[in-house]
Amino acid sequence: MGRNSVKKLKKPPRHSALAAVVHIENEDDLFDLIERTENPLLLVLEGVQDPHNLGACLRTASGAGVTAVLAPVKGACGITPTVRDISCGGADEVPFLKVKNIGMLLRKFHDEGIQIIGTSDRGGGNLYKMNFKPPTALVLGSEGWGLRKVTGDLCDHLVSIPMAGKVDCLNVSVSAGVCLYEAVRQRL
């Protein structure tokens, strides 16, 4: 078969043209969604500012079947064209909500019986020994300072990802992927 006989494939449609599967506009919508979900898995991103990181987190959240991704109104990236592009459809599939107060949201999760697992280098727990089978909110900090102490204090568990090399931490979107897929593995 010669080079000229190879057909050029059409580009697939851009994911950003997809309509959102579930749209949430406020915390009432979020808690309605949680109530309708058999075993919610939530991703809370405390201050992720880089649109590439948010896009990658949304892409992974989509693949992992996350119920919703949440971020603070102040000091965090929202859905932008770059986020949509990087997410490869995740920004249009996974419900995303910016909330005024992450601390109050975590307290409400406690009231709903959702365990809260934060990632932190201060974490004494090993990610791979944590039980992700019950309803869970996974909380990751920002690119620069990680999880704030006040937020970590609201978590039921603080875990760290075991690191074997000289690098002492992972990028927030990589950490989200590692943690979310540990939850997926356990929930299979």
UniProtKB/TrEMBL annotation:
Keywords: Methyltransferase, Transferase. GO terms for biological process: methylation; RNA processing. It holds the Pfam family SpoU_methylase. Residues 41-181 form the tRNA/rRNA methyltransferase SpoU type domain. InterPro entries: Alpha/beta_knot_MTases, rRNA_MeTrfase_TrmH, SpoU_MeTrfase, tRNA_m1G_MTases_N. It comes from the Bacteria. This is 23S rRNA (Guanosine(2251)-2'-O)-methyltransferase RlmB. One of its GO terms (cellular component) is cytosol. The keyword Methyltransferase applies. The keyword ATP-binding does not apply. Gene3D superfamilies: 3.40.1280.10. GO terms for molecular function: RNA binding; RNA methyltransferase activity.
